[in-house]
Amino acid sequence: MLEHYLTNYPGSQYGADKSAVANKMADNGAILLLLNGVDDGTNPASEVEGQPLYAGEIQVEGHPWYINQNYDHRDATFEEILHLVHDYGIGVDQNPQFNGALPDYQAEIRTAQEYALTDKKWAWGEESAGWVKELTEENSLSQEYLASVIDSYYGLWGAHEGQYGMWNLYVAKTREQIPTKDPRGAELLNNKFFHPYLTYTARIDDSFEGDFSLKFNAALGYTHHAQYLKDLRLTGSKNSNVIVNGRDNHIWGNTGTNKVLFSGPSSEYEVSKNGKEVSVKDMVDGRDGNNTLVDIESLVFSDTTVAVNSL
Predict the structure, then answer these.
(1) Tens digits of per-residue pLDDT, 93-138?
(2) What is the bridge-based pairing of β-strands 298-300 and 305-307?
């Protein structure tokens, strides 16, 4: 996730070259603490200076916590690593300890946060009053607000039973809702700093077996999140398959037998092979994209299955 947040976003207003943010994080002594257990106050290492992230709040793609969207172990990776980048890299206004590289962007974040709080789009109600008071004293309102926006932007709350995002603290539950429910929050994501998809290569947990879908399917809660993945690598030896989305996926197989599943008939795709690499280009715009596959045994179309070794 840290790599994702710091990957350049060409053409964006603040993220085209993120080296200044990365360098500022180093200058400011950013430390990420990967801790055992959960955030229950019993781990003495949590007292060490740094941004904590606990094993019990990390979801690995393909792991049962991820597939079942287990909110007892909800994925806090996006939030906690964002705090690290925000505090030590982007910077926080009104706090000289966190002098960052992007004060203009932080000013936009602060404005959106103040609007969201005033207009009851985030952290509203009496039950949030104590928390908001604590955040105000810490000068961390803007960080927590941005984390709520980002979590919904990348689909982390779509499968939650609540009506809203971030434990019912943020009015928009999904990316689609942000522009109408929190337009100023949406502006923070409009070609500013954060990629519209996840730039890292997801390593699918070796316990996973079956069809892993990169395409949104309301019956599969994890696809609220997985739809924003682009590249993935199957690990282990189980016979696992991948359903593509439209993001020009790069997919690597594991040591088992793997298939990649497409939406349309084979006649609507261009397929070519170069050594171990297979390219499958969908000729229908906006559907399955242009996919690059390695160590995949079969291509499954709506009308036929093609063995890669026959190409």
Answers:
(1) 977 777 899 999 999 999 999 999 999 999 999 999 999 999 999 9
(2) antiparallel
pLDDT of residue 117: 97
Spell out the residues 6+ positions from residue 141 whose beta carbon is closer than 8 angstroms to its own. Answer: 113, 117, 132, 135
**Residue 265: predicted pLDDT:** 98
pLDDT at 23 (0 to 100) = 97
Helix (H), strand (E), coil (C) string for the chain: CHHHHHCCCCCCCCCCCCHHHHHHHHHCCCCEEEECCCCCCCCHHHHCCCEEEEHHHCCCCCCHHHHCCCHHHCCCHHHHHHHHHHHHHHCCCCCHHHCCCCHHHHHHHHHHHHHHHHCCCECCCHHHHHHHHHHHHHCCHHHHHHHHHHHHHCCCCCCCCCCCECCCCECCCCHHHHHHHCHHHHHCCCCCCCCCCEEEEEEECCCCCEEEECCCCCCCCCHHHHCCEEEEEECCCCCEEEECCCCCCEEECCCCCCEEECCCCHHHEEEEEECCEEEEEECCCCCCCEEEEECCCEEECCCCEEEHHHC
Average pLDDT, the chain: 96
Per-residue pLDDT of 264-299, as tens digits, reads 999 999 999 999 999 999 999 999 999 999 999 999
